[in-house]
Amino acid sequence: MTEKLAPPLFNSLAEQFKPTNDIIQTSLQLKGHCAFLFYVKSVVDGDKLQQTIIRPFFEMASEEGFASYIQSLPNQTDVPDYKKLLMMLSAGFVLVAIDNRTFLLNIRLVKNNEIQETVMEPTIHGPQKGLSEDVETTINLIRQRYHNSSLKIEKVKKNDVSNRAIVLLYDDDRVDPDVLAKIRAKLEEINTPLLQSAEDLQHFLNQSKLTLFPTTMVTERPDRIIYNLVGGKVVIAIDGSPNVILAPVVFFDFMSSMEDNYHVSLVTGFTIMLRYLGLFTCIFLPSFYVAMTSYNPDILRIELALTVAGSRIGVPYPSFVEVFFMLFFMELLTEASMRLPKAVSATATTVGGLILGTAATEAALTSTIMIIIISAVAISTFVIPINEMSFAMRITRFILLIYTSLFGMVGLLVGFIGIIMFLANKDSLGIPYLRISWKGKSDELRMNNK
Amino acid sequence: MSRFLFYLIVVNMLTNMVSITPRILIAGSTTGTVLSLLLALVVGMILTYFLINLFSQFPGQGLPEIIKDHVPKGLSAPILLFFSLTWYFAGLSTLVVYSLIIFRFLTPEMSIYTIVLAFVVVVTYGVLMTSSNILYMSEIVLIIVFPFIFFVQLKGYLSSSLNWDYVRVAIMQINHLPSYTSFTSSLFIVIGAANLIIFNRFFTKLKKPSRKGMTILTLTCTFILLTTYFLPIGFGGFEALNNVLYPWIATSDSIRMKFGIIERIVFIFIGAFLALGVISMTMHWHVSLQLLSSVIYFKRFKWKSVNLTLPLFIVFFWAIAMYTTKTITSNGIFQSVQLFDRIILPIIIILLFVCLLAGKKGAQSKWPESKK
Fold first, then answer.
1. Residue in A409, A415, A421 nearest the CB of B107
2. Using alpha carbons only, what angle is made at residue A234 by residues A231 and A237, rounded to the nearest 5 degrees?
3. Cis amide prior to B247 (ω within 30 degrees)
4. What is the pLDDT of residue A448?
5. Radius of gyration of chain A (CA)
6. A311-348, pLDDT tens digit by residue?
7. Chain B, 270-309: which have a CB under 8 Å from a chain A CB?
8. Using CA atoms, how far apart are residues A93 and A91, in angstroms rounded to an integer?
């Protein structure tokens, strides 16, 4: 009985992987039957391999029977070209050769498939679990909430180094074909050596180099994803990221929380109103203070104007320096408390917020009213439900502040219209970014499906 | 009727509440303004109806595209240039009036250049936007501003300082024959639909004006036109108001909010109308710029694949605007707006109708040919 040799493909593969230690090239032999296995140990599920391949081999009577058994396995795929094969092996596929026939089996060991808690967009009502870092699990989570054959899943391969899977999900009946074509073209265009996460990909999907407002949305909430799928949007998921990208989006998407759907109408109305008032406050208030104190104190009623002027007694510089100074420290504080470990961040906020605030007024570096305004601004920034938009608004605030410092009350008003113009002039993949569509919820969900 | 059409008309109407028009109307209060107002309303609505009707036959086309094929180029170029100039003047008058108002009432210590500069940056950006985006933007600004304007007017009508006797005296002047100046000035207020000359590019599905749409439009126009004229008279007195430069500013300054954080209504009023002024300026200059570039366009004038024709025009726009704002007097702008309303406005309207009818006729005669 002559010993069978491993196919030449196996040897060249092993050559390619050398000097890696975790590749396994082995043969199964029983009474003249022979099968060869090739896999990377650390990414293959050992138990499953044992259950589905190794044990059946020894129970089968013939090579023929084993080959047809392997062929009938649900996780069997065709052997692709050499380059792709290398990539798939490193992702956890097992190559099986039986009597000049080779099979590729998906026995991946995925450790990052647990479902994450929602961190970025927490709500009191509604689903509490987000997506998973494993793209298969993410697709599973979405499919399990949207049982519809029109939900299409399309893999996009990018030639970046990490060879991650990028997946497009959309409802074929509802999606706008132009938008879909644009997204495909955009993904095609991306030519970057490394893509790591949804945020990373979003960055490359943005149209121009200098962007302030996000034109695609990153989300972790399955309910938001389903809502937007029904609304005809495209979801882009990337392996290894617990967030997905929604496109195209409009400005009002960033001002909506999923919780709006879970409350009674008046409560929802009230929270939405609060949110927009918060938005106006956080953009307007610092600039308004500058316009009030330095340009037109006569606009306020006389008692208030006197109170403001009185609290500024002893402050040694003009109001715009004061506002910049305080805003700068507030931004530092926000940034610090985000980056620091939880244990230290409490100290930072106490020292920064309480001590610095009090001391700054006592030292007459700022007025007490300024402290109130800054706190109000800081709080109202966090009312904006989507993080990216509140980051953008933090910068917008500074732009308006500069414009107001230069031109006074006129600058405040005209600058504000300028911001609206800027937003209205933007588009997200051809969809106007800021326009009022006067659509009810049912209309919105039946978009393009008339 | 598309809601954006309303915005075109309403923005034009509201902006003129603050500018020179009320003064022209009040100056003619003893010589037939009241009848002119009514006449202008009727004529204005009929003209608006026909304008929309005519433009609806050229879906998605501005005037340059409409007359391109049917009017010889030697004739169409001067016509478009003329329209461009007039629209530029309309925007310029808004800019000058608002700059003067700001200079007088809001920031008297600021240089007039700085005030104009505050508009420059934003309006330049706005002018270069696409027509559709300008309309989206104006919708949002109108929604933000409208409650304030409504509030000011409501406050005015409910104020105890409003003396209805003055209004009655003004109405009694109805027995005078309409005066030409008052008529054309009021006509200018209601003829905002003429902006379709370029903005029709946005309306690809413009329908003929419906009865409901025209009714709402007529009611709005009537209310605003009558308020523009009668409310200042009710506050300022029938004869005394003749000497006031900006009747509406004076009027809104007579109203106070006793418990408001902002006590003087005039600041809310100026703020709201400043926003509208920016929109109106953007619209007018956008039209002007588009008309101008349809006649004169330097294809080779480029810098790194960005064509510099439009920026060049804008530089001219601003240079002229700066110079005018600096040199013109309050009386000067009053005289020139009056002149514009008296002579140029009728020419614009007639010429616009002639062009549209020529385009329509050309399109009709061409249609059977192209079918063969």
1. A409
2. 130
3. no
4. 47
5. 29
6. 888 888 899 999 998 899 888 888 888 888 877 877 87
7. 271, 274-275, 278-279, 282
8. 6
Mind telling me how many Å the CA of A254 is from chain B's nearest CA?
17
Is residue B83 within 8 A of residue B63, CB to CB? The reply is yes
**pLDDT tens, position by position, A88-97:** 888 888 888 8
* Amino acid identity for residue B209 in this structure: P
Question: Contact at 8 Å (CB) between A398 and A327?
Answer: yes
The string of pLDDT tens digits covering residues B268-297 is 999 999 999 999 999 999 999 999 988 887
Contacts with B3 (C-beta within 8 Å, 6 or more apart), sequence order: B139
Other CB atoms within 10 A of residue B57 CB: 15
Instruction: Count CB-CB contacts under 10 A for residue A48.
Output: 16
Rg (alpha carbons) of chain B, rounded to whole number: 21
Place of tokens 């956080």: A282
Give the whole-angstrom CA distance, residue A220 versus residue A240.
13
Asked if B143's CB is within 8 angstroms of A300's CB, the reply is no
- A50: which DSSP letter? I
Domain coordinates of chain A in residue numbers?
Answer: 8-106, 115-248, 260-428
Query: Is residue A433 classed as helix, strand or coil in its secondary structure?
Result: coil
CB contact under 8 A, A410 and B274: yes
Interface of chain A against chain B, CB under 8 Å? Answer: 295-296, 298-302, 304, 403, 406-411, 413-418, 420-422, 424-425, 432, 434-436
What tokens appear for A217 in the block? 């949305």
Q: Which amino acid is at A450?
A: K
CA A313 from centre of chain: 47
Residue with tokens 């696409």: B130
Contacts of B56 (CB under 8 A, 6+ apart): B203, B206, B207, B208
As a whole number of angstroms, the distance between CA A199 and CA A205 comes to 10
Residue type (1 letter), B51: L
Structure tokens at A325: 């100074």
The single-letter DSSP state of residue A434 is S
Give strand pairing partners of A129. Answer: A117
- Report the domain count for chain B: 1
**Residue B262 backbone phi and psi in degrees, to 5:** -95, 115
A304, A414, A436 ranked by CB distance to B139: nearest? A436
Report yes or no: A392 and A283 within 8 Å, Cβ to Cβ. Answer: no
Q: Is the peptide bond before A248 cis (omega within 30 degrees of 0)?
A: yes
Count the Cβ atoms, other than its own, within 10 Å of residue A102.
16
Amino acid symbol at B182: S
Q: What is the amino acid identity at position B137?
A: M
Give CA–CA dist B104/B99, Å, rounded: 8
Q: Is A331 exposed, middle or buried (0-12, 13-18, 19+ CB in 10 A)?
A: middle
Helix (H) or strand (E) holding A269: helix A265-290
Query: What is the distance of C-alpha B244 from the center of its chain?
Result: 22
Phi, psi of A192 (to 5 degrees): -120, 145
Other C-beta atoms lying within 10 Å of the C-beta of residue A177: 10
Kindly report the average pLDDT of chain A as a whole number: 85
CB contact under 8 A, B133 and A424: yes
Q: Residue B314 belongs to a domain with what CATH number?
A: 1.20.1740.10
Cβ of residue B129 closer than 8 Å to a chain A Cβ: yes
Range of the domain at B348: 3-371
What CA–CA distance (Å, rounded) separates B323 from A82? 73
